[in-house]
Specification:
- This protein is an all-alpha fold.
- The chain has eight helices and two strands.
- It has one domain.
- Helix 3 crosses helix 6 and helix 5 packs across helix 6.
- The chain is globular and about 60 Å long.
- The N and C termini lie far apart (54 Å).
């Protein structure tokens, strides 16, 4: 794992930890696609967290590219899940087929520019590059130094994928990512526990006690008036 990939992974983990229980618990409520600035919350299509699949929007080639890219943003390590382990691809695929539908053309253009840059620089598409060269490509996008991008810009594409990677890692698993609570376990987030003990409330350590509970394990919300 390169220094750049370690730094990006650390950034995402710190961002998730700083976000706190309130924001992570509602991370499955994703913004309306195409909006800028203060985005309107909009629920993503709920899905069984069955793993990193594709087909709701991505074709096989684009799915492979996105999965490889997000894995370099949040690379897995022994005992520490990454984007592939958490099914981030599945989350993004479902989001683009639903509430992020207005970003479909953004992704198509961005992925085409990404592979054009990789071929002009290294002679191969992104998925065929080794990890070190993939990290170099990701760093070039992050710094805005990658050619072949017009719209979206390289930095805009990088920032969008980084945001969607965070959502796929740390949103409730019912939205297609965070498989087996991989992201929540990584940062010690307990989910929607029915009861917290006094020790839980006073502890400053990561939450590790089972079970970690998501929306799928909760019953329907009671209606007003007790009906």
């Amino acid at each position: 794992m390169s220094k750049d990939s370690v730094t990006r992974r650390a950034f995402l983990m710190r961002a998730a930890a700083v976000a706190g229980a309130g924001s992570i618990a509602t991370a499955g409520v994703v913004p309306e696609a195409g909006a800028a600035g203060g985005q309107t919350p909009h629920k993503a299509a709920m899905a069984e967290p069955t793993g990193a699949k594709h087909g709701a929007f991505f074709n096989a080639g684009d799915a492979a590219t996105v999965e490889a890219f997000v894995e370099r943003l949040m690379p897995g390590a022994p005992g520490r899940p990454g984007a592939r382990d958490a099914a981030v691809l599945n989350y993004i695929d479902l989001a683009l087929a639903g509430p992020y539908a207005e970003q479909q053309y953004f992704y198509r253009r961005g992925l085409a520019a990404l592979n054009a840059y990789c071929r002009s620089t290294y002679g191969e598409a992104f998925v065929r590059l080794g990890a070190a060269r993939q990290d170099a490509v990701v760093a070039a996008l992050e710094s805005g130094k990658a050619s072949s991008f017009t719209w979206p810009t390289a930095q805009a594409f990088f920032n969008t994928l980084r945001t969607h990677t965070m959502e796929g890692m740390f949103a409730d698993p019912i939205y297609g990512g965070n498989k087996n609570f991989a992201g929540w376990r990584l940062v010690g987030f307990p989910g929607a526990q029915p009861v917290f003990t006094p020790g839980d409330m006073q502890s400053k350590q990561q939450f590790t006690r089972a079970p970690i509970i998501g929306l799928q394990q909760q019953g329907p919300m009671p209606r007003k008036g007790g009906k």
